[in-house]
Write a structure and sequence with these properties.
Number of helices: 9
Order of helices and strands: HHHHHHHHH
Strand content: under 5%
Shape: flat
Distance between the termini: 49 Å
Structural class: mainly alpha
Number of strands: 0
Radius of gyration: 20 Å
């Protein structure tokens, strides 16, 4: 394990890129998921079908294949993306598909009586959605969204195939240098575990605060 301590700064740099990719992908995936969820709930038949097709494709195909298509396939059509950009785009599109179903289910869980009461008080459809529906839906969406987030944290290891130097890639580079595998794999496993515990704790606190009113 002495080699792990000697190269800890390199491993921590990999952990930083893992967190960066996770947070940025989650941010864009969150926005995309909201758009797709409302498209399926409020859009016309064409918009709904487009949204359903997107969700079906990205939920029905392996994320590894999606990364390959975006990084190695798009250059055939003149679209070349850097490794980090391709990784974030792939993960954002994938997480957006999964979160859109979470958000759609959470919004549908809010009683229609809440919407009718808000409209009867003179609130506009936007005000009803923003002030009445979304706060209640958020409480329902947090637990599955947290699970998706933690899953995404671990799935960032897949972007090592496009040479993004995240946590797994740093371990692979060190293994290639020292010809010793187990200490580095154990080290990154512990790092993933610690990051998952931290995010689980933060999401539990958020869920608890949102549930106080109920």
């Amino acid at each position: 394990m002495e080699l792990v301590w000697q190269n800890l700064d390199f491993l921590l740099k990999g952990a930083y890129y893992t967190l960066l990719i996770t947070m940025v992908s989650m941010f864009f995936g969150f926005i995309l998921a909201l758009i797709v969820a409302f498209a399926r709930l409020k859009g016309n038949i064409v918009v709904r079908n487009i949204a359903m097709f997107y969700v079906s494709v990205f939920r029905g195909t392996p994320i590894l294949v999606q990364i390959f298509i975006i990084y190695y396939g798009l250059p055939d059509y003149g679209i070349r993306l850097g490794p980090l950009t391709a990784a974030i785009l792939s993960l954002s599109l994938n997480i957006g598909a999964y979160l859109s179903e979470t958000f759609r289910g959470a919004i549908l869980s809010v009683s229609k009586g809440q919407t009718e009461a808000a409209m009867s008080l003179g609130l506009t459809p936007w005000q009803t959605t923003y002030k009445v529906v979304l706060p209640q839906a958020a409480r329902v969406a947090i637990p599955p969204m947290g699970n998706t987030f933690i899953g995404m944290l671990k799935e960032t290891s897949l972007v090592s195939i496009v040479t993004v130097t995240e946590l797994l890639r740093t371990a692979q580079l060190l293994i290639a240098q020292y010809y010793i595998a187990m200490p580095f794999y154990i080290a990154i496993a512990v790092m993933y575990w610690v990051m998952s515990l931290v995010f689980s704790h933060l999401l539990a606190r958020i869920e608890k605060n949102l549930s106080k009113a109920y």
